[in-house]
C-alpha cells in the first residue's frame, strides 16, 4: 500500500484537456507517479478556436499556466447576436463587466494554445508525469488495482498490462473506460445523435486584407453570432487577432451513412455554401475564403446521462461522462474543472486504502456531476432557442430580443445572459472541493 496519497500510482487514459489537467493538478499536489496514455502519436496542437471563460481561467491560473495562454488570446468586450439572413442586430451585450465581477475577462483563443499551455505545464514536472503516446488503452478492469491493456500503435511492440492504484478515464466521447464500466454494472446508456453537425473554419488576416468589413471583425474584440432556422454561426478573432474563427451548427445530413465510429467527414465547399445560402452577403464572403479541400464537418454527439461516474478506484473525466453541445462554450472548461477537483480530492485522502480512494472519487462526482449535467442541458436548450423557425416560439424569442434592446429581460442566447454567466463563472469548484471534502467524504 502506498505510504501517502502522493505515492499512489495514477494512470490517466487520454491527453485531452481533462487528462492534461488531471495530470498537472495532481503533480502540483505532490503526486509522484502519474502516467498518461494517449492514442495519438503526439498532441499535434491542432484544432480551431476555443472560448476561455473565467471559470476555466481561474483553474488554469492556479495551475500556473494561464499567463502563457492569456498572452496569445483575445479579450472579448462585447457580443452581437444577428439575423443570419439580413445581418440585422437582434441583441448587443457588453461584456467588460466580466473581469471585474469574476476576476478574469472572457477571452477566446486557439485550442492548440490551451492544449500546449497545459502540456508545457505538465513538462515542468518530468519526475512526476510520464507520457506514453501512440498507445491505446483496451480491456479496462476494475477492483482495488484497476488495470488495462496498453497496445502500442507500433505493431513491432508487444501489448502489455498496466496496473494502477487510481485509473482516470479521460478518453473522450468514445471512451473505452466508460464502455467497460457500464458493461460491468449492467447500465444501458449510449451515445446519442443530436441530428446536428458543425463546420469549424479559420480565416487568416492576410486573406481578407482587401475586405474592410471582415478585417474590422478580425481586428476587433467581439463575438458575433448569426442565427437562422436550424442553423447558426458563431465567430470571433483568436491568436492575437491574426485569425478569425468560425464555428457553425447545422442539420446533420452528410453523416447519414456513417458508422458509429465516425465523427468527422471531409466536406464539400459547395454544400457548405448551400447550407448557409440564405445568410447575408458578409457570411457568404467569409465562407468563400475557405480553401477547396479544407472543409471538414464534425458530427455533434452527446451521451445519455450516467447514473455514476465512479466504480471502485476508477473515475470518468470530461467527455467520457458529460459531452455537451457547444452552445455555451463550456465543453473544455467543464473537463478542466473535473481535473482540478480530482487533484484536490485525491490530495486530501486520509489514507490510501481502496475504500478511501473510492470515497474520494465519489466526492469528485458529488461536486461535479449535477453542475456538469445542468450545463449540458442548458447548452441544448440554448441551441433550440437559437435555431427556431417561424412560429409562436420564435415570435416569443424575438420579443425577448426586442425587450433586451430596451434593457429589459434575459438574453435568449444563454451564453451571453448575465444570470447564466453567474451560474457558470461564479462557481469555484476547486474551492468547493477544498471546503466540502471532509463533509462529503464522511457522508
TrEMBL record:
Domain FAD-binding: from-to ranges: 8-377
Keywords assigned by UniProt, alphabetized: FAD, Flavoprotein, Monooxygenase, Oxidoreductase
Xref: InterPro entries: FAD-bd, FAD-dep_Monooxygenase_BioMet, FAD/NAD-bd_sf
Keyword Flavoprotein: yes
Pfam families cross-referenced by the UniProt entry: FAD_binding_3
Domain of life: Eukaryota
Molecular-function GO terms, alphabetical: FAD binding; monooxygenase activity
Family statement drawn from the similarity comment of this UniProt entry: Belongs to the paxM FAD-dependent monooxygenase family.
Protein name stated in the entry: FAD-binding domain-containing protein
Species whose genome carries this gene: Aspergillus aculeatus (strain ATCC 16872 / CBS 172.66 / WB 5094)
Amino acid at each position: 500500500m502506498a505510504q501517502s496519497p502522493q505515492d499512489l500510482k495514477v494512470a490517466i487514459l487520454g491527453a485531452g484537456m481533462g487528462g492534461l489537467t488531471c495530470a498537472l493538478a495532481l503533480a502540483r499536489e505532490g503526486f509522484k507517479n502519474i502516467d498518461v496514455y494517449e492514442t495519438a502519436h503526439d498532441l499535434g496542437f491542432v484544432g480551431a478556436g476555443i472560448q476561455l471563460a473565467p471559470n476555466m481561467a481561474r483553474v488554469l491560473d492556479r495551475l500556473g499556466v494561464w499567463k502563457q495562454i492569456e498572452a496569445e488570446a483575445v479579450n472579448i468586450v462585447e457580443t452581437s447576436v444577428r439575423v443570419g439572413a439580413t445581418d440585422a442586430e437582434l441583441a448587443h451585450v457588453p461584456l467588460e463587466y466580466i473581469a471585474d465581477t469574476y476576476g478574469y475577462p472572457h477571452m477566446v483563443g486557439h485550442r492548440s494554445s490551451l492544449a500546449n499551455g497545459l502540456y508545457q505545464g505538465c513538462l515542468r514536472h518530468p519526475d512526476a508525469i510520464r507520457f506514453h503516446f501512440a498507445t491505446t488503452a483496451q480491456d479496462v478492469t476494475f477492483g482495488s488495482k484497476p488495470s488495462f491493456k496498453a497496445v502500442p500503435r507500433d505493431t513491432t511492440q508487444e501489448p502489455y498490462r498496466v496496473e494502477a492504484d487510481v485509473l482516470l478515464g479521460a478518453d473522450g466521447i468514445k471512451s473505452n473506460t466508460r464502455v467497460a464500466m457500464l458493461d460491468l454494472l449492467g447500465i444501458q446508456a449510449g451515445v446519442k445523435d443530436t441530428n446536428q453537425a458543425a463546420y469549424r473554419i479559420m480565416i487568416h488576416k492576410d486573406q481578407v486584407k482587401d475586405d474592410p468589413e471582415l478585417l474590422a471583425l478580425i481586428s476587433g474584440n467581439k463575438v458575433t453570432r448569426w442565427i437562422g432556422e436550424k442553423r447558426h454561426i458563431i465567430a470571433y478573432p483568436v491568436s492575437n487577432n491574426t485569425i478569425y474563427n468560425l464555428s457553425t451548427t447545422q442539420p446533420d445530413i452528410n453523416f447519414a451513412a456513417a458508422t458509429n465510429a465516425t465523427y468527422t467527414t471531409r466536406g464539400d465547399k459547395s454544400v457548405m455554401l448551400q447550407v448557409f445560402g440564405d445568410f447575408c452577403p458578409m457570411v457568404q464572403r467569409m465562407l468563400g475564403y475557405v480553401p477547396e479541400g479544407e472543409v471538414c464537418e464534425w458530427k455533434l454527439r452527446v451521451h445519455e446521462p450516467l447514473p455514476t461516474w465512479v466504480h471502485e478506484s476508477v473515475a470518468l473525466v470530461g467527455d467520457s461522462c458529460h459531452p455537451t453541445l457547444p452552445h455555451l462554450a463550456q465543453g473544455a472548461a467543464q473537463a478542466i474543472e473535473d481535473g482540478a477537483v480530482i487533484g484536490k480530492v485525491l490530495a486530501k485522502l486520509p489514507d490510501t486504502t481502496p475504500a478511501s480512494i473510492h470515497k474520494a472519487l465519489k466526492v469528485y462526482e458529488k461536486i461535479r456531476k449535477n453542475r456538469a449535467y445542468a450545463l449540458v442541458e442548458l447548452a441544448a436548450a440554448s441551441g433550440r432557442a437559437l435555431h427556431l423557425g417561424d412560429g409562436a416560439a420564435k415570435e416569443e424569442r424575438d420579443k425577448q430580443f426586442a425587450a433586451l434592446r430596451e434593457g429589459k429581460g434575459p438574453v435568449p442566447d444563454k451564453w451571453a445572459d448575465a444570470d447564466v454567466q453567474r451560474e457558470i463563472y461564479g462557481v469555484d469548484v476547486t474551492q468547493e472541493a477544498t471546503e466540502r471534502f471532509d463533509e462529503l467524504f464522511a457522508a
